[in-house]
Design brief:
single chain; 73 residues; mainly alpha
């Protein structure tokens, strides 16, 4: 299977499955130590707090995946 086919199949998955897939792929690229993982977790918590407090707005997943797909075509 080629990359565009994989991407098309991936974007057809439910959002939760796409999140798991992205996380699994990123983990293979970003082999990190415990300190690095802790920093990323803290950053993620701060960003989530910002979203919950309305300081920043999220981007719909469909928009993100459409943009990503357009870059690999």
């Amino acid at each position: 299977m080629n990359t565009p086919d994989l991407v098309n199949e991936a974007i057809s998955l439910p959002v939760e499955e796409r999140i798991r897939l992205v996380d699994a792929l990123l983990q293979t690229l970003n082999q990190s130590d415990a300190a690095n993982a802790q920093e990323w977790n803290e950053l993620a918590r701060r960003r989530l707090d910002d979203m919950d407090a309305g300081r920043v707005a999220g981007i719909p997943g469909e928009t993100v995946f459409e943009k990503a797909l357009s870059r690999v075509k």
